[in-house]
Give the backbone structure.
Amino acid sequence: MIFIDACFKKPTPTAPAWLMRQAGRYLSEYLATRAKAKDFIDFCRRSDLAAEATLQPVEILGVDAAIIFSDILVVPLEMGMKLEFERGAGPVLPRPIQNESDIDGLSDNAVDRLGYVYDALRLTREHLAPDKALIGFAGSPWTLATYMIEGGGSKTYAIAKKMAYSAPDMLHKLLRKLSDAISGYLLRQIDAGANAVQIFDSWGGALEKEAFFEFSWSYMLKIAERIKSARPDIPVILFSKGAGGYLESIGGDFDAFGVDWNTPIERAKNLLFDRYALQGNMEPARLYDKAAIESGVREIARVMGKADGYIFNLGHGMQPDFSRENAKFLVDFVHQTFAR
Amino acid sequence: MIFIDACFKKPTPTAPAWLMRQAGRYLSEYLATRAKAKDFIDFCRRSDLAAEATLQPVEILGVDAAIIFSDILVVPLEMGMKLEFERGAGPVLPRPIQNESDIDGLSDNAVDRLGYVYDALRLTREHLAPDKALIGFAGSPWTLATYMIEGGGSKTYAIAKKMAYSAPDMLHKLLRKLSDAISGYLLRQIDAGANAVQIFDSWGGALEKEAFFEFSWSYMLKIAERIKSARPDIPVILFSKGAGGYLESIGGDFDAFGVDWNTPIERAKNLLFDRYALQGNMEPARLYDKAAIESGVREIARVMGKADGYIFNLGHGMQPDFSRENAKFLVDFVHQTFAR
């Protein structure tokens, strides 16, 4: 699997490529699969449908890795939090975490309740070509905590930040509980067939540097360490959106660093590539235009050259209004451009 | 005026302090003033009320500079765009820019139509203590363009970015038109009594590095150059939110760089302080807690020391749920901490 080789900085015939949120609404096949489910949560819980959505972009785009179709919020859901997805409105958690007893009330059995994800992984791995990697994933403790505290998405993260600055012990208690659940969840995903795991810290950049390392990065690292000590053969990829200003202080035991589009790839290369594989970071909006795709890929190739340990990806997720044709063009162009 | 001295890196008895969005809903006096206006646009157009709101935080908090109360969207408004502020929903521009003829249709007379802002500046300067600076401001061309193209705020800037990558000439045409208006607007603000001007590039960080310099920073610099060549005595402050990863490439003719909270102040100091005054960058959420305020200010003081050319500010704006007591505590604590 060239994706796994690249995570371990071993030689590969070209740069492996996959796209964050590659199973998504820009694909008519995805919409057809989704239509078979009652609602979005049902979609996540239906292992057969999740496996179907996971496999689609591999067949359609020729990417080198599939990422299991799911949502980061299945962890809070199975910890017992009420969760609703309203069309076009994003997730809503109508009974957010407000105090210690809310945290105490979270179930410790989420890892066991997430069997539908493990089933989807097993089913996907059965149908996936042997040279294609299957990626498991989870949200970071901090990112999940923001949803659980804010009761949904947020522009300012005011409630979660207020807790960080005025009740840090309470926040740490929640983050520890989440870290335990996420570690167990990822290990079970590996048992079920995931060849690599990625932690998505979508809102890491909502924290200033000091707070980022205290409330987000340290927990991501603890999870990575637990996985690496149990399963050193499985690459761990960490992706913190918006942490580009903090790279000087990044370290610890993981394999690949996901670079967002807001972080110049040259900066990531200079600061991290001696120790980590790098994954990323084309600006997703370049998908709107083929010439912009070409210049974006060429610019990354100019910086990274054909060095081992580079994985092509976007710097953020695919958007619903992107074209499948341009996505396919992108993957082909990457494979050509980085061919050794 | 210690604020102006600091912008020019001259010695000051302590670090001057002001807070972005210091005239805001966290102050009951502001709410009382706002209640006298019909709606938010009327508030911006009523020079007497704008001056009143501008002066309040100087009296209440003891900040060293007042920033004229207004909104960056008065420029598109006076270029002829329909603009609505609905309570709690943010600005809406119901007829966004979609093609070249929409751009051609924008009025060239906005600078003359903004007389109410100049009147507010004159009125404020009359009532402001002579040692307090009055700051004029405008949004950056790119930031205004995003509102004008998206028809309001945006999470992904998909429409504006699509234009950047697939119709860059059209976007440049709009940005040139905006730059002309903004340059004229800021010069007229200076004529009316502004002692310094700041350009707010709130959405600069929505662009990847290459696009940031092409579509945002280059236009901010052109405006700065026009102001500096006409009025070298007036400090120009540039603030691009989210551009912390791009500091290695920052240069040009302006006086002070505004540092957002997402950019470590140490990084800004290392890369920019030899050439520019620095303003910023305490995480606003620290306002929720006095101990967090103290440690935030002390951390900046540890990095910046008592060097001339440092202006205290937040790394983003004040929020409606902040307490005036903590804001006052912050300003006093800054003045004490940085006293020579």
